[in-house]
Amino acid sequence: MLELKEVGTLVRYLGVNPTGAQIAALVEQLNALVGEGEVLLPSQHVEAVVANFMATQQASLFRDDYHTLIRAFRAFDPEGKGYVMGDQLKSALGSKGEMMTEDELTKMLGFGTDEEGKLYYEDYSAKLANDGRSI
To answer: In this predicted model, which residue has the larger pLDDT, 134 or 27?
Structure first.
C-alpha cells in the first residue's frame, strides 16, 4: 500500500523528474482505479500506472545534466561566489514556475546546505546529476 500523497516521491525515487502536471495525471489515473477519496493505494495499481507512465513518458523524464544545473544555480549567484543562500533559493523555488512543496524544499536544502545556510552549487549539482541512478 502507498499513500496517495507519496506518488510523486515514489516516481522521483525511480530516478526521474516529473512535472507537477505529470504527477497530477498519475494521481488522477490512480483515483480512477481505486475510487476518488481513497488515501491508501494498492501496490498492484501503483505499479501498473507508474510502469505505464515511465514507458510512455520516457523522453520527457531525463534529468538535467551537470552543466544545465550549474547554469541554473549561477542565475542566483551574479557575484560568482560559488554558493547561493538556501533562503534565497527556497523563496524562488517555492513561488515561481514548477513550485516545490515545503517538504520538498526542506529535504533539498537539508541535504545541500551547510550550517550557515549556504548551498555550494558545484558540489550539489554533481550529486544531483550523477547519483548512480539511471533510467
So the answer is: 27
pTM here is: 0.57
Which tens digit of pLDDT belongs to each residue from 11-26? 888 877 788 888 899 9
In this structure, which long-range contacts are made by residues 85-91, counting pairs with CB atoms below 8 Å and at least 24 apart in sequence?
85/117, 85/118, 85/119, 86/112, 86/113, 86/117, 86/118, 86/119, 87/117, 89/119
Distance CA 44, CA 42 (A): 6
Which of 12, 96, 27, 94 is closest to 61 using CA atoms?
12
Predicted confidence (pLDDT) per residue in 66-79, tens digit: 899 999 999 999 99
- Residue with cell string 526542506: 106
Residues 6+ positions from 77 with CB-CB distance below 8 Å: 83, 84, 121
Query: To which residue does cell 539511471 refer?
Result: 134
Torsion from C-alpha of 104, 105, 107, 109, nearest 10 degrees? 160
With CA atoms as reference, report the closest residue to 119 among 83, 94, 90: 83
What gap in Å lies between CA 47 and CA 67, rounded to an integer?
33
Give tens-digit pLDDT for 121-132.
999 888 887 754
